[in-house]
Design brief:
Layout lengths: L3 H12 L3 H17 L10 E2 L4 H15 L5 E4 L13 E8 L8 E2 L7 E3 L1 H10 L11 H18 L5 E3 L2 E3 L5 H23 L6 H27 L3 H4 L2 H4 L9 H13 L2 H18 L9
Parallel strand pairs: 2-3, 3-5
Antiparallel strand pairs: 1-3, 4-5, 6-7
Bound molecules: zinc ion.
Zinc ion binds next to helix 5 and helix 6.
Length: about 290
């Protein structure tokens, strides 16, 4: 990706009378200058120190689950100057923006890295913990799952789309392609969690995986409570705001959690919950009158 700032320098060079000489000076200074390019501010985001300790804990847990996959997240605030992090390491940036975020984390296009938005993560966890019969979602454990999902994108070589001007944009990603890639990243995380959680004898990696699996079960419960209590009746008709995908390129989050839980547990109960959700979507898509017209 050519940055806006490097474009403007090149534009200035082309307008300069002694272009050859100027380019030579520019090239001589380029390596040091390009090494200081900031992946975060380049995309219109700002760095934040919010929840550094919490994110570092989630990252360490994700790395335990990721052991032997060749992928390892490295919090950038723990990296020494000019440190590259070694083979397989993926820099993790804490970011914020004045623009509305749509995801707690993502792999931006053109960067072998991951952005985590702690402010959005906190808001999301509070929303999904609030209401009758809800359990408190521990965002530290939920973030571990999110990071495993992002590791899936790194593994598959897919990204969440371009980040521009502090805003995530999926506009350059084909909607069905984006959904497929999201599903594949979830599958990567689920398969890894299942494999690690069932490992015997128990070890650091299996304990970390079991904590994350437990958090996903809590989240599945809370989302079920939302549909059953807050959105009473929506199941009978497959109400689109509850059962359909959120926007044209984002798969329904509740469906993603049900699928992930089913991939991990592979039990008749998790399959039943998933089937019921998909049947409700069908009902919503083929909307019929609940009562025969008089
Ligand atoms: Zn994703």
């Amino acid at each position: 990706m050519v940055s806006a700032s490097s474009q403007s320098v090149r534009l200035a060079a082309s307008n300069f009378g002694h272009r050859g000489l100027f380019s030579l000076i520019l090239l001589a200074g380029l390596p040091a200058w390009s090494a200081t390019l900031d992946e975060v501010t380049e995309r219109g985001f700002r760095h934040t120190t919010l929840d550094q300790a919490l994110v570092a804990k989630a990252t360490a847990r994700a790395n335990k689950v990721l052991a032997t996959t060749g992928i390892r997240f490295v919090p950038t605030w723990q990296m020494k100057a000019n440190e590259q992090g070694g083979a397989g390491s993926v820099p993790l940036y804490l970011v914020d923006s004045a623009k509305e975020a749509t995801t707690p984390a993502a792999v931006p296009e053109g960067c072998h890295c991951v952005f985590v938005n702690p402010r959005f993560l906190a808001r999301w966890a509070t929303f999904n913990s609030t209401g009758a019969a809800r359990m408190m979602i521990d965002r530290d454990y939920f973030l571990t799952f999110v990071l495993l999902h992002e590791a899936g994108h790194i593994h598959d070589g897919t990204s969440a789309g371009a980040f521009k001007d502090g805003e995530m944009s999926q506009l350059n990603v084909d909607p069905s392609k984006a959904k497929t890639e999201e599903r594949q990243a979830d599958e990567f995380a689920a398969n890894l969690l299942r494999q690690r959680a069932n490992a015997t004898p128990a070890n650091d990696s299996s304990i970390a995986a079991n904590f994350v699996v437990n958090e996903l079960t809590k989240l599945g419960w809370n989302m079920q409570a939302f549909r059953t209590l807050d959105e009473f009746g929506s199941f009978s008709v497959g109400r689109p705001s509850v059962f359909f995908d959120d926007g044209y390129s984002h798969p329904n989050m509740a469906l993603r959690i049900l699928r992930t839980n089913n991939l991990i547990q592979r039990s008749p109960e998790t399959q039943l919950l998933l089937d019921a959700f998909e049947e409700a979507r069908e009902r919503g898509a083929n909307a019929k009158r609940l009562h025969a017209p008089r």
